[in-house]
Each structure stands twice: as C-alpha cells, then as structure tokens.
Automatic annotation (TrEMBL):
It comes from the Eukaryota. SUPFAM superfamilies: NTF2-like (SSF54427). Pfam families: Tim44. It is found in: Mitochondrion. The keyword Ribonucleoprotein applies. Belongs to the mitochondrion-specific ribosomal protein mL45 family. This is Large ribosomal subunit protein mL45. The lineage of its organism: Eukaryota, Fungi, Fungi incertae sedis, Mucoromycota, Glomeromycotina. Its main location: mitochondrion. GO terms for cellular component: mitochondrion; ribonucleoprotein complex; ribosome. The keyword rRNA processing does not apply. InterPro entries: mtLSU_mL45 (IPR051975), NTF2-like_dom_sf (IPR032710), Tim44-like_dom (IPR007379). Residues 11-136 form the Tim44-like domain.
Amino acid sequence: MGFFERVKYYDEFKLKALKMYTDLNQNYADGDLKALKNIVLDKMYYRLKFELKTREDYGNKYYWKYHGLVDDPKYQCIRYYDTGLAQLIIKLHTKQCIVVFDKEGKLISGDPKEIKNIVQYVVFQRKVGEKGDWVIYGYYNPEAPTKLFKFDLDKNKLISVV
C-alpha cells in the first residue's frame, strides 16, 4: 500500500471507528450481547456480559443517544507488536445523552434533556497479515498514573522506579 492509499485508509478508518464506538454504546444500552460480540475482543465482551447481567439482576434500563461530534476523531497512537498485533488509539470527542432508569421506570442517573460532551480514547486492535476486521480492545485513560514500579525480591514488595 502506497503513501496516499495509507492516508486514505486511515482517514476512512476514523469514520469506521466512530461507527463501531456508537454501535458499541447503543448495543450496550440495548443489552444486545450478540451484536457486542462482533465488535469487541473476548476479554471486553465477557466484562460487558457480566455488567449486563448485573444490570439485568437489578432491573435497570439504559438509554443512550449519540448527538454528533464535538471534534473530528484523532489518532493518538499507532502501535505494532512483534506478535503481529496492531493497535490504534483514537480520541473521540462526542455529544451524548446517557440515562439510567430503575425497574419501576424511575430516573436514577442522568438527565434525558442533557447532552454532554464526552471524550474517550478507544483502543482498536487487529492481527496484521490476516483478513479480519478491527475490533474494540478497550479504553485508554491518558490521566492514569504512569509511575513505574519494579518488584524488589529482597524486600518482597513493589518499589517506585520513577
């Protein structure tokens, strides 16, 4: 693939990534496990499945609606590993409405009239050299601590190295 084809591919992928992200949120709100399985990796799928089961046990209902972009999707990181995996981190700045109702239909979280600006960093992954679609690996939190630790065998504990 030449330079211009790559640029076009990555520009087009940002739109596909946004579609996958909105599908993920809508399918999660709808409790559609079958649809979720097609767009997320197994580890994330099982976490979402557990969350949906817990939500079902409480009888809660979610409402989610996408209201457009605040800013265009932006690549934050493109990684390739020796294992043949490629990952893309895309910053999505969107307008959304998220509301939760209890089993009686009483509002317990959110406001149906309030549209919020949400920034999320979504990690997409695929195997390079194989036919297959990108899937959502999970989310990245750029504000998470980046402090590094190592295990000190003599003291039998983690110690900071930064």
